[in-house]
Design goal:
transmembrane helix, 84% helix, mainly alpha, cell membrane, rod-shaped, 7 helices
Length: 225
């Protein structure tokens, strides 16, 4: 109880610069936690959709039937489903012309899937840069507040004939709080960024592998009568 009140008092009695640094770090921490929960849910959803789609795709269902199911009006495709729809739609469009060579049909479908793949990865990568920024800069911002607070503490002793630890301790303590808040903001952001980057890297590999496997199937279908 006393410790909480002491910390609260140190924060409220800190200099304006130190308080501003604390406010910036607290805001960055709150924003990063918001992005962490949202991104975790988004990536887990993307993995879940990929698992379900691959199970359907390799179950032996006809590609045309799968396309009709995913392109229905009451269905909202996500993630790898959009990649499949983009490729099969372009492949069907090129094939219906009747004048396009099989290799061109497949290459056109592959380009369409690559475009949709890039869009999906851009969407999943959103806010990761913010987490990296918070993780890398928060300790330095907190250190700036600490240095400023300690500097003010020692400057206040200029007119004191005999300095004591009791006179310096409050100023140093309030300054160190800024470093603590900086670490509190940085550590979760760094951990989340590394975890999400790894998951996104694996998901990217699964997307790219699906594109290559789907291209092989389209090549067979393009050369079939």
């Amino acid at each position: 109880m006393n410790t909480d009140l002491s910390i609260f008092r140190l924060i409220t009695e800190a200099s304006f610069v130190v308080q501003f640094v604390m406010l910036v770090l607290a805001t960055a921490s709150l924003a990063s936690w918001t992005f962490i929960f949202a991104k975790r849910k988004e990536l887990n959803r993307a993995v879940e959709i990929t698992d379900e789609f691959e199970e359907q795709f390799w179950s032996g269902v006809a590609l045309a039937d799968l396309y009709r199911k995913l392109s229905a009006k009451d269905f909202e495709p996500e993630g790898i489903e959009k990649i499949f729809l983009a490729g099969y739609k372009e492949f069907s469009r090129m094939r219906q012309t009747g004048t396009v060579e099989p290799m061109v049909q497949v290459e056109s479908a592959q380009r369409a899937m690559r475009i949709e793949l890039s869009r999906e990865l851009d969407r999943l990568d959103e806010h990761l840069a913010f987490l990296a920024t918070v993780g890398s800069t928060s300790p330095y911002v907190g250190l700036f507040g600490t240095v400023w607070g300690i500097m003010n503490s020692f400057m206040s002793l200029g007119n004191v004939k005999q300095a004591t630890l009791a006179q310096v301790a409050p100023g140093i303590a309030e300054a160190l709080i800024a470093t603590a808040i900086g670490l509190f903001a940085a550590i979760p952001a760094v951990v989340a960024y590394n975890r999400f980057s790894t998951k996104l890297y694996r998901l990217t590999g699964r997307y790219e592998l699906f594109v290559e496997e789907f291209v092989v199937l389209l090549q067979r279908q393009a050369h079939s009568k």
